[in-house]
Amino acid sequence: MSDKIRLGFALCGSFCTFKKVLAEMEELSKTYDIIPIMSPGAASIDSRFGKAEDFIRRIKEISGREPITTIAGAEPIGPKALLDILLIEPCTGNTLGKLANGITDTSVTMAAKAHLRNQRPLVIAVSTNDALGASAQNIGKLMNSKNVFFVPMGQDNPIEKPASMVAHFDKTAEAIEAAIIRKQLQPILL
Asked: N- or C-end of the chain: fewer Cβ atoms within 10 A?
């Protein structure tokens, strides 16, 4: 059993960010005991950014564990208090909407619900083309929720995708450290 803080690391299907996100997971594994969680899409969809089986293989190499990919697999996170902190990176607009509105229909949303029942910190790293559009209200709602924190974010392509925002993944470790002591890393918008 590790003495490291147990970090749930949940990935949603923003495939264009996976290269950066997995590099961040690898870096965090030096400090934290990583428990990987993948949304159904993240665990099964092959995209132009890579094959699902390759991402799963890499996650297993980094964490030493099979990722949790089902609601049933994620449910014990709450009653067994399996995590000290949960990170959703990348967090899609779809998952933001579900979290903001109490919808628990994926492994990631179940992990968040189960984890938050223990009043432990949840850190969200946004990656969505509609953060300044339809997802803005969900981000605002979550920013006003107890024990929910954000990795600082900014527009990734304001000319071609003016509503799109992506977390500054290089700020993930700092955001986690702040969330552990129940602080929001500032500034949120970079």
From this structure: N
Q: CA-based angle 25:26:27, to the nearest 5?
A: 90
Q: Does residue 49 belong to any structural domain of this protein?
A: yes
Is residue 89 within 8 A of residue 24, CB to CB? The reply is: yes
Q: How far is CA 140 from the centre of its chain?
A: 17
Cα angle, residue 126 at apex, residues 69 and 120 outer, rounded to 5°: 65
Distance (Å, rounded) from C-alpha 163 to C-alpha 178? Answer: 27
> 54 pLDDT exceeds 90?
yes
pTM score, whole prediction: 0.97
Domain that holds residue 14: 5-134+165-180
Q: Residue 113 is part of a domain; what is its CATH number?
A: 3.40.50.1950
* Overall number of domains in the chain: 1
Taking alpha carbons only, the member of 148, 188, 172 closest to residue 22 is 172
d(CA 78, CA 63): 20
* Per-residue pLDDT reduced to its tens digit, 62-87: 999 999 999 999 999 999 999 999 99
As a whole number of angstroms, the distance between CA 138 and CA 131 comes to: 9
Longest Cα–Cα distance of the chain, Å, equals: 49
Residue 146 falls inside a structural domain: no
